[in-house]
């Protein structure tokens, strides 16, 4: 796997499922026999989409997998609200951009609110970013994961890594002993945190200089730069590096599922975002404001809440993630102990409590320029 779904700034996407987009654009008749989903990988897998097709043999069900939240949102802005029925992106976008722009529509609260009661405590309140300020339900949470950095606990203990947090990478002994997983948007968030800055507030003046110095230090002292999580985990396992900057349960999970549980995602004990040093991504799936809507859209959202499919969503596509539905005993019963170890269920609630919600980076345009210059040098 050389391209990550978490590398938000990449612009390419691949069409998956039967048929073509031209067919999807043309097929406005019988919309209740058609469903088009714009999503991160996983929902388009045979384990998920194939089973839904089996339930609806007379329907045409397609999915396109994106590699960038903004890329998927821009498709809707360009007029593809007439194509898509569901969009699956990370947590800040529904409330801050999709709903205000009229790109998604409110969901049936009578139908979907009961599902929150069976979610994990972090989501059962229910999760605030799933709602508009007026109380409209904008999307259903499912996959999520803490995302900070990863260590080999044979070399660096979990306790040391959590206590040191981002300062770990500034230890003289770590020069040339860490990798940088080059997921640009996440790198910017993490470089800001490592600079003692909140990436979700404006970073200007002297604070930009702090960010610049941190970026230059990390790039100049990293032994390995790659966007391939498999290559990064391999370097960690082989002893080439002891840790990697930017990573989480999502990136560590394949190695852990293979039994290499010394590969561990770390969430710092403290940091600059209201005292939190970690960050968490949470996917929301929303109903597109298609002028010719398909009834299958909300049916699919109900379908992925079921125990069998919630588990399939969590363990698909070679990387593994917790799902909000694990608060349901029937869902949890489907996970083996090895699967729970792979997604670090032992510390998941604790890591969530130490993580800020992923948000849009306020000074992204300035910071990406600084980041790019540091990477080139």
From TrEMBL:
PROSITE patterns: TAT (PS51318). Residues 1-29 form the signal peptide. Gene3D superfamilies: Periplasmic binding protein-like II. SUPFAM superfamilies: Periplasmic binding protein-like II. The keyword Signal applies. Keywords: Signal. The keyword Transmembrane helix does not apply. InterPro entries: TAT_signal. This is Extracellular solute-binding protein. It comes from Pontibaca salina.
